[in-house]
Design brief:
2 copies of one chain form a homodimer.
Chain A (H helix, E strand, L loop, with lengths): L5 E5 L6 H15 L4 E6 L1 H10 L1 H5 L1 E5 L10 H4 L7 H10 L5 E4 L3 H12 L9 E6 L6 E4 L9 H19 L5 E5 L10 H12 L5 E6 L11 E3 L2 H26 L3 H21 L7 E4 L4 E4 L6 H16 L2 H14 L16
Parallel strand pairs in A: 1-2, 1-4, 2-3, 4-11, 6-9, 7-8, 7-9
Antiparallel strand pairs in A: 5-6, 5-10, 10-11
C-alpha cells in the first residue's frame, strides 16, 4: 500500500452521507485503479455501503469514528473533537503519514480550523487559501482565495499567486499559467495598496508563471487567464455572485420558453443543447476546492454534491497528490524568497474610482 | 422654466457622443414632457443634433463648452478643467441652482472627482456612493457602492444603507425597502468587524426600511431584497462578475444551439424567447448609476449605452428629482443621528470562514 496514493475520506460529511461518498470512491477507484482509501465514519454505515461498492471494499481500510461534525457546529467547538470525529481523524491520518490527502463534504469552517491546527501552514506561507476551478468559455480557471481569509495583505496575495500557479500546472496541465490579480480596474493605479504592491512584486519576480496584471470581475468566466488571485471576502462574493447569476439567467430562460407554443416547441427541440449547457455549468463538474498552503492536502466538496461531484473532488485530490503539489509550492516559494525583488510602494493617488 | 425639472446633459460624454445623448433626450422628453435640458458641448455638435430632435430643441438651452474630458484623462488632471469642459460645466450648473441633476456617459473617475469637489458631500455623509439597479428574477434591486470607495468603514456602510433605501423608495416605489449587507455568510458571526457593527446598528435603528441582515453573493439576482449594501471594491467586483457570468452563460448557450440541425431548428423557434431574455438582461434597460450623498444628483451612464440606455439614465435622473431624493436622505440621516442606537462591538471569533 505504501507506494499507492492514499486518500482519507470523511465518509460522514455532506448531505448525501456515506452512500454518496463511498459510491463516489467506487467511481474514482475505477478511474484511478492505484487509489487506496482510508474510510472514516461509523462502522455500520461503512460496512453497509461496502456491500454495494466492491472496488472500494477491496482497496480500503475502514476506521471507526463514533462522532460526527455537523453543519451547525462552530469551528471553535469542532476542533476540540478532532480525535473522535470522522473529519478530525481523516485529517490526522495525513499528519501521521498514513494518507497524502483527505476529502470531506462537511462543515467548511470546522474543516478549515481543524486542518490548520493539525497540519499547520507550510514554511513560507502565512495563511492557507481555498482554491477551486471555475468554468469559463475556454478551459477552467483556478480562483483563490474563496473564503479562507476575510482580509489579506500583500504577502498573502503573492503567496496565493504562487500556490494558484502550482495548482494550475498540476490540475490544468498548463506549463506556464497566466496569473492575474482581481481588481476594480486594469490600470496600475486602481485598487488597494496591498493589491498594487502585490502586482509590483509579481511583475518583478522570476516565477514559473506569466503575471498578466489586474483583471476585472467580468473576466471571471472569459477564460483568458488561468489563475485569478484575490482576498477571501472578494473571492467568496464573486464565486457566489457567479452562481447566482447563472441561476438568474437559466431561470429567466425557462420563463421565456414558456411564453408561447412556438417557444415551447423550440424548447423541446433544443433540450439536448440546454442539457449540455446545464452539464457544463453544473457545480458537480467542478467540485473540489482545495486548502492550499498546509502540510498536507485537504479537499472540500460541496455539501450537496452528488456521486459524480464527489468523484470529481476525489479526482482533484488524486491529481494533486500525483503532481506532488506541496513540494512544487515549497520549491517555488523558496526560490521566490531567495531572489525576492525589491519594489517601491506606489503612491496612492487616483486609486479610488472604478 | 423654474418649476420644471431641469437636467444638465454632458452632450460630449460616451462612445456614442452627441448623436446618442441628444436623441436619448428626445425620447426622455417625450416620456416626461415637463423635462427641460441644459446641453453642454460644442456648439456645432449640439446645433447639428437639434435639427433632428425638435422636442429637445424646443425644451433646452445649449451652452457651448470648448473642452472635453476623455476616457484616458486622470481624475486629478480632469478637475483642473472643470470650468471649460462639458462635464465640469454640467456639474457646475447644479451647484449654481440652474439644474437639479446632471447626466454624463463620460469618464467615471473624472465625473466622481469633479462632482465631489464641486457639490461636496451632504451633511451627515462621509463619502458618496455609486448606486445602480440590477435585474433579478423579480423586481430590480438597488446595489451600492459599486466602486466609489475602495475601503469602507461601519459609518459608510450605514450611510449607504440609508441612501440605498431612499433610492429604492423613489425609483422602485417600495414603501419600506428590504435592505441587506453583502457578506460571505448569513450568520451574525461572519465577515469583517465593520460589517458586524454596521449590521448591529441597522438592526437597532428606527429607519424607514426593513433590515434583513446579511446576504451572500448568490442572492444578487434572486430579488428577495430591494437594497444590497457593500463596499465599493466588493460591489464593483460583484457587478462585473455578474456581467461576465451573464455573457458566459449566453455564450455557452449559443455554442450549444449550434451542435445539431435539431437544436438549430429549436433555436429558430425559440428566438423570440431568447430575444426577450436578452432585453431583460440588456445593460441598457438598467442604465444609469447614481452618485448618492452629494448636494446634487449626478447620474453616470455606461459609456457604451445606446439611445434607449441613455434615455433610461435620463429617466432615472427625472425620477430622483421628482422624488426629491436628496431631501429624503437628509431627513432620514438626521433622524438616525438624533435617535442613534448604542451598540456594543461584537467579539471577532469564528469570523473568518465561509
Amino acid at each position: 500500500m505504501t507506494d499507492r496514493p492514499v486518500i482519507a475520506l470523511d465518509v460522514m460529511g455532506g448531505d448525501g452521507g456515506p452512500a454518496v461518498v463511498i459510491a463516489a470512491a467506487e467511481v474514482a477507484q475505477e478511474r484511478y485503479p492505484r487509489l487506496f482509501f482510508l474510510l472514516f465514519g461509523t462502522q455500520e454505515a461503512i460496512r453497509e455501503q461496502l456491500l454495494h461498492n466492491p472496488r472500494v471494499a477491496g482497496n480500503s481500510i475502514a476506521v471507526h469514528s463514533a462522532d460526527v461534525i455537523l453543519g451547525t457546529d462552530r469551528p471553535s467547538t469542532a476542533v476540540r473533537r478532532q480525535r473522535t470525529t470522522s473529519m478530525g481523524m481523516a485529517i490526522a491520518a495525513i499528519k501521521a503519514g498514513e494518507a497524502q490527502a483527505m476529502v470531506s463534504a462537511g462543515n467548511t469552517g470546522a474543516l478549515m480550523a481543524m486542518a490548520k491546527l493539525t497540519l499547520r501552514t507550510m514554511e513560507g506561507i502565512d495563511r492557507p487559501a481555498l482554491a477551486a476551478l471555475l468554468p469559463t468559455l475556454m478551459n477552467d480557471s483556478v480562483v483563490l482565495d474563496l473564503g479562507a481569509n476575510v482580509e489579506c495583505d500583500t504577502e498573502n496575495l503573492v503567496q496565493f499567486a504562487v500556490m494558484g500557479a502550482a495548482f494550475a500546472r498540476t490540475v490544468l496541465g498548463v506549463e506556464r499559467p497566466r496569473v492575474a490579480l482581481l481588481n476594480i480596474g486594469e490600470e496600475e493605479l486602481k485598487g488597494t495598496e496591498e493589491l498594487k504592491m502585490a502586482a509590483a512584486l509579481l511583475r518583478a519576480a522570476d516565477l514559473p508563471m506569466t503575471f498578466t496584471g489586474f483583471v476585472e470581475g467580468d473576466k471571471i468566466g472569459a477564460g483568458d487567464v488561468d489563475v485569478i488571485v484575490t482576498d477571501g471576502f472578494t473571492g467568496n462574493v464573486a464565486l457566489k455572485t457567479a452562481e447566482g447569476t447563472g441561476k438568474l439567467v437559466t431561470g429567466l430562460l425557462a420563463q421565456s420558453f414558456r411564453t408561447s407554443w412556438l417557444t415551447q416547441l423550440g424548447y423541446l427541440l433544443s433540450r439536448g443543447a440546454l442539457r449540455a449547457l446545464g452539464r457544463h455549468l453544473d457545480p458537480n463538474a467542478h467540485n473540489g476546492a482545495v486548502f492550499l498552503g498546509l502540510n498536507g492536502l485537504v479537499v472540500k466538496s460541496h455539501g450537496g454534491a452528488n456521486v459524480r461531484g464527489m468523484a470529481h473532488a476525489i479526482g482533484v485530490a488524486h491529481d494533486l497528490v500525483a503532481g506532488d503539489i506541496t513540494r512544487r509550492i515549497a520549491r517555488d516559494l523558496d526560490n521566490f524568497r531567495t531572489h525576492r525583488p525589491v519594489v517601491a510602494a506606489n503612491d496612492g493617488h487616483d486609486a479610488s474610482v472604478a
